[in-house]
Structures are given as C-alpha cells and as structure tokens.
Amino acid sequence: MFKQLGVIGCGLMGGSFALALKRAGLVKWVVGYSKSPSTTERAKKLGVIDVAAESALLAVSGSDLVLLAVPVSATEATFKAIRHLGDSKTLFMDVGSTKRDVVDAARRVLKDKIRNFVPAHPIAGKEVAGVEHADAQLYQGRQVILTPLQQTDPEQVQRATDVWSAIGCQVLRMTPENHDAAFAAVSHLPHALAFAYFNAMVSQPAGREFLSLAGPGFRDFTRIAASDPTVWRDILMSNREEVLKQSQRFRHALDAFEHVLKSGNLEALEDLIRHASTARASWQMSSRPGSQR
Amino acid sequence: MFKQLGVIGCGLMGGSFALALKRAGLVKWVVGYSKSPSTTERAKKLGVIDVAAESALLAVSGSDLVLLAVPVSATEATFKAIRHLGDSKTLFMDVGSTKRDVVDAARRVLKDKIRNFVPAHPIAGKEVAGVEHADAQLYQGRQVILTPLQQTDPEQVQRATDVWSAIGCQVLRMTPENHDAAFAAVSHLPHALAFAYFNAMVSQPAGREFLSLAGPGFRDFTRIAASDPTVWRDILMSNREEVLKQSQRFRHALDAFEHVLKSGNLEALEDLIRHASTARASWQMSSRPGSQR
C-alpha cells in the first residue's frame, strides 16, 4: 500500500504504528527519526524502523506516508522542520490526544500543504512510554478519531481511513472542537483527578502508611496517575479550557455528595450513588472483536 | 477447627467466607440466615450454607463461630437480635468496611459479651453483589484488618487471626479510629470521587455520546463507580467525618491543578503530575503470593 513510512518520534505510539504496518504488510520500509539519537538507534536495533534518519526532514524525504508521533507541544516545530518536503501525494498524520492546537499549528505552518494532513487520535496507550514498549497490537480493536478540515483532500482522508482500518481500528470522524470537548470529559479530566487524588494521598502525614492498605479498587482508580508527566503536561495544558469546564462540572457533582453527607440524608445519598452505579454498570467500552485490552 | 459457622447475611462477603472455610476444612457445617428468605434459600441451593435458619438468633444457636455480614447500617439491629445467645466461647466477627460505628454499636448492645467480638474488615470485594457471586477464593491473598478493643479476649483475637490466616489472608491490627481514617483515604474517597465523576459525566447534554468514546483509562478509573448503592451509602455515611476531611484534602490538590492550568505554568504543571506519577509507579498492592486478583 505504501512504499516508505516516515516516523517522526520513535516512541510507544510511533513505534507501535510502524510495527503494526510492517506486520500487516502495508509498507515496504520504515525510516525513523527521534530528537534523541539514542532513541532512534534503539528503534533501529529493535527492528521497529529500518533506517535511522538524522533529521525530521530526512525521515520525510522519499516517504509517501508520514506519521508525527511527537509530544503535542512539539507539533508546530516539527511542522516547521518538514514543511518544505513531501511530494504532492504524501499523506501526513499525527497521533496527538488534542486536536484544536494541532490543527491551529498545521494551519499556521503547512499553508497549502494542509490538504495532505489528516489529524488523527488513536484511543490507545500504555502507562509506560518508550520504543521498548512498542507493540504491533497496540491499535488492534481500538477507536481512532480523524478530524479532517474543510481543506483536507478527501482522497487523503480515505487513505488515512484505510490504513487505520487495516491495522484493526474503528475509524470515526469528528470536528477538532467536538473531539477536544469529548476527550476533556472522558480522558483528560480523569487523569487530572487521578493525579490530584494521588498527590492529596501521599502529601498527608500518614499517607505512606495508608498506601500499604490500599486494595484492588484503589489500584484501578489510580492506574492512570502513573501516566507520563511530559505527555500529560502537554495534553492538559493544550486542552485546558475544556478541562477546566469539565472540572467545574465535576466539582458541582462532588458538592452534591458533600452536601448530602453533611445533612445526613441517607436516601439522597443512595440516589446519587445509584445514578452513577446504574449508568456505569450499563456502560461498555466500544471496541471490535479481537481487542487485546 | 470449628463445629458450626453461623452466617448472618448470606451475600457476597458472608457466602465467600462460608465457602472458604468449607474448602479449607475449617468447619463441619454452616447455618445461614438472610433477611430475605429467598436469599437464604438460594444460598442453600448453591451449597454455600448447609442449613437455612429462620432467624438470626437461630443461626447463632449452636454456632461456635458467627460472622455478621450485613450492611453496616444493620449491625446494631443484628446485635440486638442475637445478644441473648452464643455460649461463652462463641467467636463473633463482622466484615464491615467501617469500624468505629460497628464498635460503638457493639459497646451499646453486647455489654459484657463484647469480649467475644473481634471486629474485622477484609480488603476484598467485587462490583457485583449477591450470593451467586460468592467465591471461595475471594479472600485469598488479601489483607484483613482486625480492630480489637481493650475488653476483647486475647484468645478470641488469636482465633480470629488463625481463621483468616487459614483462608489466605494477611492479618493486620489497627485501632478502629486509625482504620476509619486510613480507609476514608484509600477507599471511601475514591468511591465518592468515581461516583461524582460519573454523575457529572452523564448529566451533561453530550454525556451519552462522550461515553461511546471512552477507553481503557476511563474503564479502570470508573470501575468502582458501579459499586452497590446500599452498601456504599452506608459506608460513606457512617464514615462521613473522615471522608469529608479527605475530600477537603483532595479539593486542595485539585485547586493546585486548576491554578497552574489557568496560569499557563507548564513547568509547575509537570511538577504536579510528576509527583503523582512517580509515587504511583512505585506503589505496589500488598498481597501474598497466590493472590487471585
């Protein structure tokens, strides 16, 4: 399907994409670049990429598919580094967890080449970062959100849809604005709450002792609190308006709990819990058969 | 070890205790009572209990070990129903997730029989309630906290320690006050936060649509939001002072996140996240080898 994949950012997401495309026979070879030369070398040693490029520009040169898998905050600088290359048919995609900022950066830098850029957000990840955790199955059975713009070439949107489908994703389309509002609610706020909860927990005098008593509920509730600090710094900051809106909603819901606890209203407390419990029990994660997680 | 186990409340916790003791050969037979006769019958049909008792008092009669596995709010009424029975050597235990209220009820009702009561809290559970989910392995590899009082007979504390150890638990001792403070932090507040988060999520206009996009992080973060409403109503209400204290600490930690997001201070945001992420990554659940969950 593709001759050469250029991966900029050979970490968990970029590395897993390369492995998945190789395994599916969708690409002949992979050229990779990471800011840190040792990461690029490791990716080559692990067989995640075939050729280590010395710059982002060299990873784009000759590629008919380019994946930007850099921290969201590095997107604009990466666009600037590569804007002069790519023939008129090269498909560019990213994997960022926020989309408005990526689209804004693309508009500023790519100018007319923006028609070849299809912003993408695969709903997949691990709490461990780095190319050594790259996994050909990471995207299998997961959703991927594409947020094409009016100027995006429909043919490129179709190619993007095909490649994600071919590695096992369910492909959805949304506007960048709706995407960011939705993910503030279902992902970014939960991360902020889990981080804040863990900080509150360990900063109290008996915190360490308490931790030794925590069980499976705690383990699952706080799993996302172990997420990568630089990745989540960028996500929370670049989507902060929506995150703060969701935080406000959450505070109102927490107010309601505190209010019924203070008033001792057992029935009202049960109603609040039942509302959440019923809704959660009927929820199921959207995924295809064959999902690994 | 025991001749007859009397179980009051044949649900998930009581039923699992009965199955675990039977499997370990620690008890000859089990007499069970539940408020709902259909539950008692179901427990008998499933082989969780051997004899269905028609009252709590009849479940205690002839038992040398009695487990109260009723909602925390029903503890005092249950003590009242059984206070006239049990010979001088019968060991009484409960499995409540809060301990100060249970101990207070025991003091009020049991009088001098309180010496045979060893308050217990096994750190185990499932999001599904009911005797049909009872599981002989539920307590395997888990911690159990005993909160004996000054008046508790040390011999009974030893017997309690032995029986929980024999079914695979690691036995710890704490005061009821320390227990309730610790579990407000590691269990009760996370439940309240997960309930509140889910309510905030589903009560917004696009909530249902957002839910369809949620992934594995959301799934784990909200797992405890599906917990049983009557069980958790009782736990949160009976430990509300400690829960409200923890909620206050959490709000301060959330304030800090909102503050750095509003100020746009990327470095301070990364510091907050790194603090949580490092602490969570180094945490491991205390459990014995052979733990099933």
CATH architecture of the largest domain in chain A: 3-Layer(aba) Sandwich
Largest sheet of chain A: 6 strands, parallel
Radius of gyration of chain A: 21 Å
- Ends apart, CA distance between termini of chain A: 28 Å
Describe this structure in words.
2 copies of one chain form a homodimer. The first copy, chain A, is built from 12 helices and 9 strands. By secondary structure, chain A is an alpha/beta fold. In chain A, helix 4 runs parallel beside helix 5, helix 7 crosses helix 11 and helix 11 (240-263) crosses helix 12. The two termini of chain A are 28 Å apart. Residues 288-293 of chain A have low confidence and may be disordered.
SSE blueprint:
2 copies of one chain form a homodimer.
Chain A: E1 2-8, H1 12-23, E2 27-33, H2 37-45, E3 51-52, H3 56-60, E4 65-68, H4 75-82, E5 91-94, H5 100-110, E6 117-118, E7 120-122, E8 143-146, H6 154-166, E9 170-173, H7 176-202, H8 207-211, H9 216-221, H10 229-238, H11 240-263, H12 266-281
Parallel strand pairs in A: 1-2, 1-4, 2-3, 4-5, 5-6, 8-9
Antiparallel strand pairs in A: 7-8
Helix pairs in contact in A: 4-5, 7-11, 11-12
